[in-house]
Amino acid sequence: MRGRKAQPWYSDMRARLRFERGARQRYPDLSVSATGRGRGAEVIYRLTVEMPQYGTRRITIRLINGFEPHGSQITADGPTNSPHRFSSDALCIWHPDDPPEQKWEGEDGLLELINQAVIHLFKEAYWRETGEWLGPALIGAGAAALINIIGIVLIGIRHERQRRRDLYANALEATLAYREFAYAIPRRSHDAPAAERVRISEALREVQRDLARAESLMKIERAGNVAATYRQLVSKTREVAGGYMREAWKKDPITSDEQMNVPGGLDFTKIDPFEKAYLDAAAKDLAWWRFWR
User: Fold this and answer.
1) Is 89 left (phi over 0), alpha (psi -120 to 50) or beta?
2) What average pLDDT does range 230-244 have in this prediction?
């Protein structure tokens, strides 16, 4: 019986089916074309992939039709700025001189090559957002599952970062609201002094409560420097703005529109260094790397 003549993988239907196993089920829009059927022909796969948290990308995979698939070149639409791309903008997923166990080989199949491309694109998108590269190429049969795990972790990081951003912003807003009473007290209604005292006192009590709540929440956060700088900011705000407020209570309320403007304004510049220190501490605490602690 004559032996079966060896032929290039793309021309060999059984070899091609083995190579593409699972890829068409995972990516229904997968298409393929070739420049020919003999050795050296270029085989081109095109498909759409999804990256957790970063949307979809259209990728193109070019292979050489030898006895085994080789010479892979992968490109994608969208941004190309990356620390791991070739000059042709093709993805640099592994180094050509890496040992076989650290890079894709034809026998690994098309689905594994796609998975590695998706991981690389995910890491590029993460790097563009944070400036941090997640590490060396991740090879193995669990690549797709790893993409999902990274996506879940990233969602958690984003939610935690947003929660703390809101906390720090609301805390700063409370100090700014406290300052406003230095303007509100002189502008109180002159024809109902008792009622105005109650109204302003109740409003000020609300702001005092917000300040106290912010300070309490800061204490239970894992950000001691932010909490310390916020306490100093609150203390200085009460000293400066509170001083203006005490003086305003001693004076008669304004009675005309011309008195609405404070000549030269109120000077809060003594608070500025404390506010800057707080904002700097908050910005440092919100840096991405701190959420991997």
Assistant:
1) left
2) 94
